[in-house]
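1st attempt posting a full record on here, be nice pls
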Amino acid sequence: KIKSKNYTFNYLYFENTFFVNSRSYDKFSKNTHEKSDDKIIFIDGNYKHQDVLQRENFDIEEIKLKYFRKLDIFLKKISETLGKELVFCLHPTSNLEEYKKLLKDVKFEQFNTEKNIYASSIVIFHESSSIDTAIFLKKKIISLDTDLFGKYLKNRIKKYQEELGIFKIDLDDKFEIEKKYLEEKIKVNDEKYNNYISNYLKSDEKEEGISKVYRIFDEYFNLLNRQYEK
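the predicted structure (as tokens):
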């Protein structure tokens, strides 16, 4: 039934499936970063990410200025309202010099997202696998919504909102940035966070994901060798 409705992948190639820990869970289990709530961070997804550009038909240069103008207003407002430093965590593929021109008076850090998540009180993002660390740490999360980048990103954003029960702010609408309102709305839904971890990130507390992959491959190759020798 699945195969008849999905022509992009042949599920019948699988003889068996195994659940393994995500890389983010194994990494989190070993982490030694100090925890604090000193700052607000925004996790960048690179506005020119190929996952979006290959799926949508729009002029990214036309969208760029509109997006960064809205983003700049929002980030400065929330930092000022909550009285905390804001750190803009750049995606590894983003161009720092370009971002500095698009966002003035913003503190940028690149290749240091995980450490900043540990030191954050609130994590803001559209869509990013780096959010896994914030989920493990039970950090408060704001889902920053927008229609500017098309249906693919919009659906990815919506999935996180539904799975985690996180507070959302739509960049395309008038948003309320009032301290009491934000404190009431931005909360951690422990049940949904735990379900997300169990369903998508953690499979086995005793065996690392990569170790399990190697072990299973080794078992299958040994089995095939024995069958071949017969």
